[in-house]
Automatic annotation (TrEMBL):
<dbReference type="InterPro" id="IPR050809">
    <property type="entry name" value="UgpAE/MalFG_permease"/>
</dbReference>
<feature type="domain" description="ABC transmembrane type-1">
    <location>
        <begin position="69"/>
        <end position="287"/>
    </location>
</feature>
<dbReference type="GO" id="GO:0005886">
    <property type="term" value="C:plasma membrane"/>
</dbReference>
<keyword id="KW-0812">Transmembrane</keyword>
<feature type="transmembrane region" description="Helical">
    <location>
        <begin position="205"/>
        <end position="229"/>
    </location>
</feature>
<feature type="transmembrane region" description="Helical">
    <location>
        <begin position="266"/>
        <end position="291"/>
    </location>
</feature>
<keyword id="KW-0813">Transport</keyword>
<protein>
    <submittedName>
        <fullName>Sugar ABC transporter permease</fullName>
    </submittedName>
</protein>
<feature type="transmembrane region" description="Helical">
    <location>
        <begin position="12"/>
        <end position="36"/>
    </location>
</feature>
<keyword id="KW-1133">Transmembrane helix</keyword>
<feature type="transmembrane region" description="Helical">
    <location>
        <begin position="158"/>
        <end position="184"/>
    </location>
</feature>
<dbReference type="InterPro" id="IPR000515">
    <property type="entry name" value="MetI-like"/>
</dbReference>
<feature type="transmembrane region" description="Helical">
    <location>
        <begin position="73"/>
        <end position="94"/>
    </location>
</feature>
<dbReference type="GO" id="GO:0055085">
    <property type="term" value="P:transmembrane transport"/>
</dbReference>
<comment type="similarity">
    <text>Belongs to the binding-protein-dependent transport system permease family.</text>
</comment>
<dbReference type="InterPro" id="IPR035906">
    <property type="entry name" value="MetI-like_sf"/>
</dbReference>
<keyword id="KW-1003">Cell membrane</keyword>
């Protein structure tokens, strides 16, 4: 407490963030009561009848349950195994660039997509893959790989690849910032000593750079595992506009939105969302316990 009062000016800067989290993250938690009620907006929380785990049972027995879980896990795992290492690899590559002007240009170009909304990005992807003057179809036709334009966003087999690739392109630059900062903190004398000993640049990356940023990688890996059931919402909602893609695009978040908001089944949607939250907290805790053995963990 004494240290906090000595840092009162710094602590004051944290107060808006604490208020934001409290208002938008903690107060709405009262709404999970709907998962155990037949909630009616006219009766409210106090007068809606309690039904126990009825809506959870309905969700687990729903015909689309396994399809939703499969899509959620597959998309999340693809983003984890392909999307998670991508910023690390980019950061390692940028760290090896010696020409500062070229490095700044690459960083600016790779950072820019992060600041574009998914509405703009999805519009760009739809235009790129369009059968009417879409750049991808024109390119494939010009090199004689296809004869007729392909409607990529109407073929379920292509959707996961398009979704994951678009997500990586959008976030790879911004995600590399933290890793570049961690790499910048490595003592340059270690590289000099390794160079004198005859270590190549590749060996220096493997034996010095990567081990030095392992703590940062582990922390972000724990957070990524905790969000494993968050396969995405805006990107899927905007890219999977074709009903043909429903079987490969419907994940927990889009399902909750469709059932809860569009169909007004508030209690059922809350039960599905609460199921996701509980599983996510459990996976986060488990990942943290495993990471703690290596000496790097969130708590």
């Amino acid at each position: 407490m004494r240290r906090m009062f000595k840092q009162w000016d710094i602590q004051m800067m944290v107060i808006p963030a604490l208020i934001f989290v409290f208002v938008f993250s903690y107060i709405p938690m009262y709404g999970v009561l709907m998962a155990f009620q037949d909630y009616s907006i006219y009766k409210g929380f106090l007068h809606s009848p309690w039904v126990g785990f009825k809506h959870f049972e309905m969700f687990f027995n729903a015909p689309e349950f396994w399809t939703i879980m499969r899509n959620t896990l597959v998309i999340s795992l693809l983003k984890l195994f392909i999307g998670f290492p991508a910023p690390i690899i980019l950061a390692l590559m940028l760290n090896e660039v010696r020409k500062a002007s070229f490095k700044r240009v690459v960083q600016t170009i790779s950072y820019l997509p992060h600041f574009l909304s998914w509405v703009i990005v999805s519009g760009f992807v739809v235009s790129l893959l369009s059968t009417d003057n879409g750049s991808i179809n024109i390119l494939l036709q010009s090199v004689h790989l296809i004869k007729e334009p392909i409607n990529f966003l109407a073929i379920p087999e292509y959707f996961w690849s398009i979704l994951v690739t678009t997500g990586i392109w959008k976030e790879i630059g911004f995600g590399s910032i933290v890793y570049l900062a961690a790499i910048a903190g490595v003592d340059p004398h270690i590289y000099e000593a390794a160079s004198i000993d005859g270590a190549s640049r590749l060996k220096q990356i493997i034996n010095i750079t990567v081990p030095s940023i392992i703590p940062v990688i582990v922390i972000f890996m724990i957070l990524a595992i905790g969000n494993l059931l968050s396969a995405g919402f805006e990107d899927i909602l905007l890219l999977a506009t074709n009903p043909v893609l429903r079987d490969v695009s419907d994940v927990l978040d889009t399902y909750v939105y469709r059932i809860g908001i569009q169909n007004s089944r508030y209690s059922y949607a809350t039960a599905a969302g609460l199921f996701k939250a509980v599983i996510s907290v459990g996976m986060l805790t488990l990942a943290n316990l495993v990471a703690r053995r290596s000496g790097n963990s969130l708590w």
